[in-house]
Amino acid sequence: MNGIIKPRCVICLEVLSNELVKENKLKVHLEAYHTPFIGKDQGFFPRKEQEIKQNQKRSKMMRRYNFQEQRITECILDQSEKGEINSWK
Hints:
- The chain contains 2 helices and no strands.
- By secondary structure, it is mostly helical.
- 0% of the residues are buried.
């Protein structure tokens, strides 16, 4: 990412324009796309935002882990092709 943080809807993750971030426009977005969430308590949306941040952290960690696992596998296969690994015992 280029370091620019763009506002997102915490329900659908749609990137919102600066104009849409105004409170009355957010209400219109909520009423148009997320009617089941109308009337939720005020703590719902901050909790949802926190949940999204936690999921993003987990996702980033998993991508890093998968990359490392892939690199290890590539190294093992490369060594095996070169004959540097004789057996899997």
